[in-house]
Amino acid sequence: MNLNLSDDTCYCYTGGRPLQPGRPTAVFIHGAGHDHSVWTLQTRYFASHGWNVIAPDLPGHGRSAGPALESIEALADWILALLARLGCEQAMLVGHSMGSLIALEAAARAPDRITRLALVGSVFPMPVAPPLLEATLSARERAHGMINQWSYAPQSQLGASSVPGVNLTALNQRLMQRQAPGVLHRDMSACNAYAAGFESAAKVRCPTLLLSADLDRMTPPKALGPLVQALGNAAQVHRVVLSGAGHAMMAEAPGAVLDALWNFAGAQPSS
Amino acid sequence: MPIQRNAGADTLALHAGQTPDPLHHSRATPIHFTTSYVFESSDHAAALFNQARAGHVYSRISNPTNAVLEERIAALDGGVGAIACASGQAALMLAITTLMGSGGHIVASRSLYGGSHNLLAYTLPRFGIETTFVAPRDKGAWRAAIRPETRLLFGEAIGNPGLEVLDVPGIAEIAHEARVPLLVDATLLTPALQCPLDLGADLVMHSATKFLGGHGVAVGGLLVDGGAFDWEAAGGRFPTLTEAYEGFHGMDFAEESPIAAFLLRARREGLRDFGACLSPMNAFQILQGIETLGLRMERHVANARALVRHLSEHPLVEAVSWPELDSHPDHALAARLLPKGCGGVFSFSLKGGRKAGCAFIEALRLVSHLANVGDAKSLAIHPASTTHFRMSPEALLAAGIGEGTIRLSVGLENATDLIADLDRGLQAAHKATA
Prior knowledge:
The structure holds two protein chains of two kinds. In chain A, α4 (130-138) packs across α5 (140-151) and α4 (130-138) runs antiparallel to α8 (183-193). Chain A is built from twelve helices and eight strands. Chain A is globular, with a radius of gyration of 17 Å. Chain A is of the alpha/beta class. Helix content of chain B is 39%, strand content 13%. In chain B, α1 (9-15) runs antiparallel to α3 and α3 runs parallel beside α12 (280-290). Chains A and B meet through α1, α5, α7 and α12 of A and α2, α3 and β1 of B. Chain B: Belongs to the trans-sulfuration enzymes family. Chain B: Its cofactor is pyridoxal 5'-phosphate. Chain B: This is O-acetylhomoserine aminocarboxypropyltransferase.
């Protein structure tokens, strides 16, 4: 689905189903250097079980036009503007990695509009290792290699994908290559510069899920403690740690990620 | 830009796509001899059909053993994924039918395996798909043959029977200028000697029956997608990938996955409807072969070099054609694109023409006379009396085949034994024509 937002064309994947009035809405926000396709399986499930799904390509990513935005705050405002543009008064936000920071900031800025918050592969602060940040600027392919090395569990590096016949790390490399030059650097810089995480977490009121994977080297679950503490005003904080997956858990363990999100959403299967 | 490998080729050949199964901890890849898979619930079933959960439904579409093979070849070739097919021919057919329907057009190298040539020249026109054949070395001809309805460029990494080395980067550039993909048949080289996706090709196919399996016991094919071709930027040339498909949930495959759209359509339509799937037993056997691919291809090349050296110096041999030889027109290209060797297949011409060729073939004891390549055992064929026997001497010449031409697929035997067998054949050829 294409729509105009801030004078640019914005693309949103809707899980293979059109949006329908009266349904709850879930927004799935991708991470750095990615697009909506990282959420394909999970979004198709939600969309076929009574939810409106919005999985946007962030500005400058995938099919969405415009320059990539420079800060997490600007991206959070963009998500809220997108919801307003769609006439969506309330939504659950699901974000992965950089997307989790965007979701967190959006939930803080509009606590009355966000009903649930799911932070997948998240941590705060989210510093980017200087060699990686530098590589995103000067040696993209090296940066892609580092990201793949740190994002996938050792088992996933050799394959055994749950999606038959797919080479997960190669798919991720191609997806990052597909983004315009400079986008990954801008995304990583935004993660690195984001400083308001604790203050924003304190403003979150809705139930919040922190979904991690035990072999995640980018956002290790053991580093989540301070963010959990900062979420003290959230109605509930749920923590789920998946076994045997890394930072790219939606690809490595798509069923387990879906189950965790679906349970958190509190929804029962419906056709 | 090539896909970065997560391990060396020999390691990937042994491990990619498989980890010991969590239930029984089997180290070897289990053979999943099952047609179908039990659903956990009706909701799980619906999600699998809707592609909202990953997994297997029916072995015509996917199978756990086949999936290991698919991931392994994708890892070796530097692709985003692969599809196992019933044969190399099935892999070629799957690639074509995923990209085009009636009205589509292919530009293909003239130097193709006979089966591929038959499909393109005689069978597909019946379904409205035409092919223009060009000399593989003539880049101008490749470019000139492209039409508005062209949807694919296709060639063999090493051509049959002339052993022309395909200039993959050069032909890929021509394809991409026209916003169409390049498919390379890499059967004779395998990823141990060349990965065409790394050189700019978009799709790769293998007859896994040959060197990948290596044992000559299992027929199979593999189709690998490099994931770099932007189907959506091709000006509407590929509606099968960029428009909603009513046959599968109204899915727009490029919207679903901009990178793996081709694989999605090929599996969800091609395997489902045409049904040329691979048996898991064959997948297992091909996997067993791939485990030793690197070692075997080194030996194939080493033996081929020894035999070429011997034959090149033999007074009864008119000529030897192999890209590693200075005399081959693609010698420089081979040095650039095939630094690990030009494979284990070459041809040579006997003095004495057709009669000499027949006598040579019949005298061989170790080298088997049959119409195949890529076995662990050495194989030979005399095209003028077998695969091309209907052709006149003039037509043979035009196809790059002499009446005394022998094609040899060099196996893994000891080179001294192979040389002794060839000498036996040469002596018989000499007697027959003396």
